[in-house]
Specification:
Elements: H1 16-23, E1 26-27, H2 31-39, H3 45-48, E2 62-63, H4 99-105, H5 108-111, H6 119-132, H7 140-151, H8 155-163, H9 166-173, H10 183-200, H11 209-228, H12 236-256, H13 262-269, H14 273-283, H15 313-330, H16 335-344, H17 355-362, H18 366-380, H19 383-389
Antiparallel strand pairs: 1-2
Helix pairs in contact: 7-8, 8-10, 9-10, 9-11, 10-11, 12-13, 12-14, 13-14, 15-19, 16-18, 17-18
Family: Belongs to the sigma-70 factor family.
GO molecular function, one term: sigma factor activity
Pfam family, one: Sigma70_r2
Length: 393
C-alpha cells in the first residue's frame, strides 16, 4: 500500500491491490464499503463505483462479485501478489492517474446513461463501450514512449495510443448528443480526431496526451455536427460563432435576469450588432413546409403561407375580363388591322413586333404598316370601344 497523507492529493502510482480490486475482484477496503459492495447487484453503478483511496485499510478484506464479463469466481489478491508484475514504467498495472483524469476517462455513471433511438443502436453502443473498456490506461511515461515511436513511423505505437484513449472520445461525444447526429456517428468522427491527435502529438511540450487530444476530438465532432445537422449548409467557423453567441447569451441571461439585447451580446463577444443579428437569424432552425398544423395532419404549413410570386385570384379574374373586352373591341376592325394591332402590341404571343418585322410578314412597306396601325387605333378610339375599356384605364 502507498502511504497517503492527504486523501485528495494526486495519486502518482495505483498499486496492484487496487487495480486487481477493480479488474479481478478483491481489495482491502473499509467495512462500510465492504457491505455496500457485497449487497450491490453486479453491473450497477454502486457495484462499479470507484472507492476513495483514503477508505482502503490494510486490515479489512472483501471479495468483489465479478460482472458477467469478468468471470464468476472471486480471486484473492494475496494469493496473486507473488505473480504480480514488478513495478516499472512499462508495466500496464501501474498507471499514473489523477482524480480529474479518472473522472474524464472512467465515468461509469455516464456509461449507464446511454441515450439511443432504438434498441439495436443502444445495444451497439453498449457493446462498443464494453470493447474499449478492455484497453488499459497509459501513464505519462508510456505516452511519451509511444509518442517517440510514432514520430519514427511506428504504426503499432499509434494504434496503442489511440486504443488507450477511446474512452475519452465517448466522454466528449456524449456532450454533443441530441444535436441531430447519432451517438455512434459522433464517436466515429471523434475517433478520427483522436487519430489525428496521435499523429501530431509532441511529448516534448510537457502536457498529457488527453489534454492535447481533447481539442482535436471536439473539432472533429463539431465539424460533423455542423455539416450533417442543418438543411442549409453553414461554414464551420460560422457555426462555432453561433455556439459562442449562444453561450454568451445564456451567461448574460443569468447575470441580467432577462434576454440580452443584440448590443449587449455584441459588446461581450466583440462583434458588431449587425453581425449578431445575422448570426441569430442563422441560428434559427428551419421548419419544413410539410409540417402538420394539427394532430390529424390534415393541414400543413404550406397550406397557409402566401406565395408572393403567384398572382392574386382577383388580378387573374381582372386580367381575363380585360382580354375579353379587348377582343370585343378588336372585332370592329378589319382582319388585317386586327392582326397588325395584335402583333404590334403583343396581344398574341406577348412579344411586340417592330414595323420592320411586320413589313416582312405582310410583305408591305413599313410606311404602309404604320398607316394601317394609325387607322386601327383611330377606330378603337370611337366612343363605343372607349366605353368597353374605360374601367381598365
Amino acid at each position: 500500500m502507498v502511504a497517503m497523507t492527504n486523501p485528495m492529493q494526486t495519486i502518482e502510482i495505483v498499486p496492484v491491490e487496487i487495480q486487481q480490486y477493480i479488474k479481478t475482484g478483491r481489495a482491502d477496503i473499509s467495512a462500510n464499503d465492504r457491505e455496500r459492495i457485497a449487497t450491490a447487484h453486479p453491473g450497477t453503478i454502486a457495484h462499479k463505483k470507484r472507492r476513495s483511496i483514503a477508505d482502503i485499510q490494510s486490515d479489512d478484506t472483501v471479495y468483489y462479485t465479478p460482472t458477467r464479463n469478468e468471470g464468476k469466481q472471486s480471486t484473492s489478491v494475496s494469493s496473486k501478489q507473488e505473480n504480480a508484475p514488478k513495478k516499472g514504467k512499462n508495466s500496464s498495472t501501474y498507471v499514473e492517474l489523477r482524480y480529474e483524469d479518472a473522472d474524464e476517462y472512467l465515468n461509469e455513471e455516464e456509461e449507464e446513461e446511454v441515450e439511443g433511438g432504438d434498441l439495436e443502436a443502444e445495444n451497439a453502443i453498449r457493446q462498443y463501450l464494453a470493447e474499449i473498456g478492455r484497453y488499459p490506461l497509459l501513464s505519462a511515461e508510456q505516452e511519451m514512449q509511444l509518442a517517440q515511436r510514432i514520430i519514427t513511423g511506428d504504426i503499432k505505437a499509434q494504434q496503442h495510443l489511440v486504443e488507450a484513449n477511446l474512452r475519452l472520445v465517448v466522454s466528449i461525444a456524449k456532450r454533443y448528443n441530441n444535436h441531430g447526429v447519432s451517438l455512434l456517428d459522433l464517436i466515429q468522427e471523434g475517433n478520427l480526431g483522436l487519430i489525428r491527435a496521435a499523429q501530431k502529438f509532441d511529448p516534448v511540450r510537457g502536457f498529457r496526451f488527453s489534454t492535447y487530444a481533447t481539442w482535436w476530438i471536439r473539432q472533429a465532432i463539431s465539424r460533423a455536427v455542423a455539416e450533417h445537422t442543418r438543411t442549409i449548409h453553414i461554414p464551420v467557423h460560422v457555426v462555432e460563432l453561433i455556439y459562442k453567441m449562444k453561450r454568451i447569451t445564456r451567461q448574460l441571461y443569468q447575470d441580467l435576469g432577462r434576454d440580452p439585447f443584440p448590443e449587449e451580446i455584441a459588446n461581450a463577444i466583440h462583434l458588431s450588432k449587425e453581425r449578431i443579428v445575422e448570426l441569430q437569424s442563422m441560428a434559427e432552425a428551419p421548419i419544413s413546409l410539410d409540417a402538420p398544423l394539427s394532430d390529424d395532419e390534415q393541414y400543413h404549413l404550406a397550406d397557409i403561407i402566401e406565395d408572393t410570386h403567384a398572382a392574386a385570384p382577383a388580378d387573374v379574374v381582372t386580367h381575363q375580363v380585360l382580354r375579353d373586352h379587348i377582343s370585343r373591341a378588336l372585332e370592329t376592325l378589319s382582319q388585317r388591322e386586327r392582326q397588325v394591332i395584335e402583333l404590334r402590341y403583343g396581344l398574341q404571343d406577348g412579344y411586340c413586333h417592330t414595323l420592320e418585322e411586320l413589313s416582312t410578314y405582310f410583305k408591305l412597306t413599313r410606311e404602309r404598316i404604320r398607316q394601317i396601325e394609325v387607322k386601327a387605333l383611330r377606330t378603337l378610339r370611337q366612343p363605343v370601344q372607349v366605353h368597353l375599356l374605360r374601367d381598365f384605364a
